[in-house]
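chain below, 309 aa
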Amino acid sequence: MNNAHTYFRPDSVGQAIRLAGERAPDFRFIAGGTDAMVNRFQGTDASSCLIDLTGIAEMKQIRLSADRMLIGALITLDELERATEVRAEAPLLAEAARAVATPVIRRTATLAGNLLCENRCIFYNQSEWWREAVGYCLKCNGDICIATGGKGGCFSKFASDMAVALISLGASVRLADKNGEQTVPLEDLYTGDGVQPRRLDPTAVLHTIEVPLGRGFRSVLRKLRRRQSLEFSSLTSAVTTDRHGSVRIALGGVDPRPILVTGTTADDPHTLIAKTVKKARIIDNDTYPRLYRKEMIGVFLQQSFEELG
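prediction:
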């Protein structure tokens, strides 16, 4: 493990962006550190500078407007789960937060950290000596995907549970960089490339998540994992309908990016399920077999549609 030689704790988004610009590309934003510090111990992150965002107070607030809930990116998953506003206006988010890791980790892990956590693969998320012994893959400067045996691309799986829930609700994110601010649909943040999974300038700060309100959302969340704590997801699904008959299906853990399929309550559920299953590029890079995870997509979605009536 390479220890960081420099540590900064800015007190504003602007200062964080300036420091990142001065240190790029050899830096890492950090908040809860539950993902970033593990990567440093495993040797998959060797940046010499850490920029700690936890001193930025404006990124730790939840605010309500007439049609949106604005959630600061540094809200911890534990705070998100317990927040009265979230439980009342978007209970799916509280449920998704409660499904992440363990109570101890949720007290430290932030919402933005979960949205931006690195894609995972059982052949990559190992110690340095393990990766060297098995052979370096496309995600760590090798020339082959060990999971598939091919050179066409990295299919490390998308690991964020919170992104799946938020995408099903039609959430957007506010990003800030040296050129100003922009708001984009959350699903547009992800590329589908396992090596470079995010469409985000390295010096940009994700500072607010916007969740639409007043649409009469009804949602169902499902998560597949070997243990009901700690484990990263092998499959996460969220299905949300609104009072206008819109349906948004989001999946995680079965593709290098989150999968989104939209429809209406008038559509045939089996058609929507088949369309969603077809979009998932599942490979054997998880503790569960590929075919089992693919079959469970249909099971989870069928259960969700039945629960939603």
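The chain has eleven helices and twelve strands. The chain has two domains: 55-212, 218-308.
thats it, cya
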